[in-house]
């Protein structure tokens, strides 16, 4: 059983911080492995500060399932590099000119160069994965990477498509976000040499946490305020991405209401996202989405029951509580 | 020693043809491994007919270094998928609307979708590479893939850059084209279980052949006619890519001539590619490039001296003679 949550002395962020520093250093060291002509570009890309959620999961799971080793750090680095490569490509797709207040590679060097830089980073990450001398692990990392791409493809393909079901939505976000979270925690357990049951439980932990986090992100996109989040919001609806709050709303709408929603969502006329968000909130569609996410977070927490008590296990629990807090802040 | 070239009964293309059919079938079968929503896109991408040079090299080397096995076919499939992924991305970068008379993925579904489809194909290919149960092989394939990206990055970065040296040029084309050719023949020898000397010799064969082939392609871009090649030509100079004939020309130019070239190449004013091609031809810069390529082809042929005589070895020799013919046709 896991230890009492309230007794934790360090926050998961304090616990992981010294190890994340190693991740940061290693990410920046990767640039040396590129051609001198390519290095400056990679330095720019690798010098950004992400939230490093995937390395955090790899590190905490590493500590919670055995002894935290260099292998767990490496796993975190590789998954973060894959994630960074997808961000470089996402920014091209979205035509984004800044990310975290910094000009995107496509804004700095054009789309063509950004495509190639993402590719080079991606193939570098997959090359690094072979250093584990564990083919299953390499395979799982390239599979997870493929899942991320496929999730994005499905979501792009089904923009402005009112036949998207909740099942479709969950499949898309499991691929798009869940896959790398699940790889982080699931493969960290594998690196610790734990048995199939623990590896699967930890894979489930990451998958559920990632899915819940994506729902949170999707809710914020609809009802958040840009002042608080510091992000451009309402982009999902603008791009015709139907996320859980909207799917919930469509589910409970009368035929007449559905017609109105269709006009607002598909024809974007009038596309007043504040009003659409207001309706989704009023009808309980946002609350329902948050409830679903909260349930997933609870299930993620449940996946930890096989682990021995340790500060790392507590931290993994605390992360679920942290996401719960995020969800509550939306209510 | 290799057998007498003139005694060959089958052309390399006849010899490889039944095996290439397997490659074609397998390439088309890959689509089943994708999500049903992604499958139709992949079917479209996998249904195009390339020259399949990389699988041809993998197959012929497989036969020439041992028994041709399914592993050699798989290697050909994986390298062709990597190549196809890079073509999907190249077409975005070049804004190409057709390839081999067929609309490109970016023309059909937009740049964003094409970025993702290339990524998914790429990660799929690297996933397939783990099925060899040979980590060195997986690592070599992701390294070769990274080289291709880096070669493209360097070439993009150094467009309109008159400080590009021949050494830079060779490095770029070795990465861009040589790396996958070298992986095809070098790793095929590895799959046959041959020793380091043979693997290196065959790696060298592919590298030299690929480099020579790229020089041929670069020469055709300058002096070829679109009626004969069926390709849009002069694109390198338009994009500011300085290829070997132009680098040769710059090498022998007087300061005054250099000034004129700079105007034509960098300021593209006047950019009459026919005239530039004519000058390069007149000054012997094209011939010199062809000579360099011919020398590389001869070296590639020399790499075969360690192999036992067989129809496959003869076919590998014949391919070098075929490239020699291509080079002669430019004179």
Which two protein chains have the largest interface (Cβ within 8 Å of the partner's Cβ), and how many residues from each?
A-B, 43 and 45 residues
How are strands sequenced across the largest beta sheet of chain A?
1-2
State the name of the first-level CATH class of chain A.
Mainly Alpha
String of helices and strands of chain A: HHHHEEHHHHHHHHHHH
Helix percent of chain A reads over 70%
* N- to C-terminal distance of chain A: 31 Å
Number of distinct beta strands of chain A? 2
CATH architecture of chain A: Orthogonal Bundle
Largest sheet of chain A: 2 strands, antiparallel
Oligomer: homodimer
Specify the structural class of chain A. mainly alpha
Radius of gyration of chain A: 20 Å
Query: What is the residue-averaged pLDDT of chain A?
Result: 92
Uncertain parts of chain A:
1-8
Number of domains of chain A: 1
CATH topology of chain A: Farnesyl Diphosphate Synthase
Q: Specify the number of helices of chain A.
A: 15
Overall geometry of chain A comes to globular
**The named CATH superfamily of chain A:** Farnesyl Diphosphate Synthase
3D structure, described in words:
- Two copies of one chain form a homodimer.
- Chain A is mainly α and 331 residues long.
- Chain A has a single domain (10-328), classed as Farnesyl Diphosphate Synthase, CATH 1.10.600.
- Chain A is built from 15 helices and two strands.
- Chain A has helices spanning 12-29, 39-46, 53-65, 70-94, 105-129, 135-157, 166-191, 196-223, 226-229, 235-238, 244-252, 255-265, 273-282, 285-302, 311-328, and strands at 98-99, 102-103.
- A two-stranded antiparallel sheet of chain A has the order 1-2.
- In chain A, a hairpin with a 2-residue loop joins strand 1 (98-99) and strand 2 (102-103).
- The first copy, chain A, is globular.
- Chains A and B meet through helix 4, helix 5 and helix 6 of A and helix 4, helix 5 and helix 6 of B.
């Amino acid at each position: 059983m896991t230890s009492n949550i309230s007794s934790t002395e360090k926050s998961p962020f304090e616990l992981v911080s010294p190890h994340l520093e190693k991740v940061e250093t290693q990410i920046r060291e990767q640039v040396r492995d590129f051609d001198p002509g390519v290095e400056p570009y990679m330095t720019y890309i690798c010098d950004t500060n992400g939230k490093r959620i995937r390395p955090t999961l790899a590190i905490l799971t590493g500590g919670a399932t055995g002894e935290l080793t260099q292998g767990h750090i490496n796993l975190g680095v590789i998954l973060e590099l894959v994630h960074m490569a997808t961000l470089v490509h996402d920014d091209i797709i979205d035509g984004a000119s800044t990310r975290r207040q910094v000009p995107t590679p496509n804004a700095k060097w054009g789309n063509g160069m950004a495509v190639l830089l993402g590719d080079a980073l991606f193939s570098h990450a997959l090359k690094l994965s072979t250093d584990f001398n564990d083919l299953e692990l390499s395979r799982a990392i390239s599979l997870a990477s493929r899942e991320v791409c496929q999730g994005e493809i499905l979501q792009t393909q089904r923009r402005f498509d009112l036949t998207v079901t909740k099942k479709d939505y969950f499949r898309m976000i499991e691929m798009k976000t869940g896959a790398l979270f699940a790889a982080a925690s699931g493969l960290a357990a594998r690196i610790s040499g734990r048995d199939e049951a623990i590896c699967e439980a930890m894979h489930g932990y990451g998958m559920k946490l990632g899915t819940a986090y994506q729902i949170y992100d999707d809710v914020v996109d609809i009802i958040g305020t840009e002042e608080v989040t510091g992000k451009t919001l309402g982009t999902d609806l603008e791009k015709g991405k139907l996320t859980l709050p909207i799917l919930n709303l469509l589910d409970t709408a009368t035929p007449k209401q559905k017609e109105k929603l269709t006009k607002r969502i598909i024809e974007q006329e009038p596309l007043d996202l504040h009003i659409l968000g207001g309706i989704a909130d009023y009808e309980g569609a946002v609350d329902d989405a948050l409830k679903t996410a909260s349930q997933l977070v609870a299930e993620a927490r449940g996946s930890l029951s096989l682990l021995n008590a340790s500060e790392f296990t507590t931290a993994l629990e605390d992360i679920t509580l942290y996401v719960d807090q995020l969800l509550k802040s939306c209510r």
